[in-house]
Amino acid sequence: MKYTDMGNKQSTRLSDRILFALELALDQNDLAIAELLTRGIEMSMTRNTGGGEFVERRDYPADLEEAMRKLNSLKEQKKSGQ
């Protein structure tokens, strides 16, 4: 599910909104913004997660995994000069 419809603003998590922006940046091939938004997602998903012994047990949503694949592909394209 792409986050093209933000739905109920009361129930949307910060990471959902950042993912929406990340998908938009990737669609526009904007690597600089996509990398910043990726850092924002990481921060929003891991805040308030416990002490130094904390281990993340949640799986990343399929949408986020797809966005990360697109980001890696965009990085490769930029690196090869395409």
How far apart are the termini? 29 Å
Number of strands: 0
Number of self-contained structural domains: 1
Order of helices and strands: HHH
Describe, in plain words, how this protein is organized in 3D:
This protein has 82 residues and is mainly alpha-helical. It has one domain (14-48, 56-79). The chain has three helices and no strands. Helix 1 runs antiparallel to helix 2 (31-46). The longest helix has 18 residues, at 62-79. It is elongated, with a radius of gyration of 14 Å.
Give me some keywords for this one.
82 residues, single chain, mainly alpha, elongated, 0% strand, 3 helices
Task: Give the helix/strand layout.
Layout (H helix, E strand, L loop, with lengths): L13 H14 L3 H16 L15 H18 L3
Helix pairs in contact: 1-2, 1-3, 2-3
Summarize, please.
This protein has 82 residues and is mainly alpha-helical. It is built from three helices and no strands. The chain has one domain (14-48, 56-79).
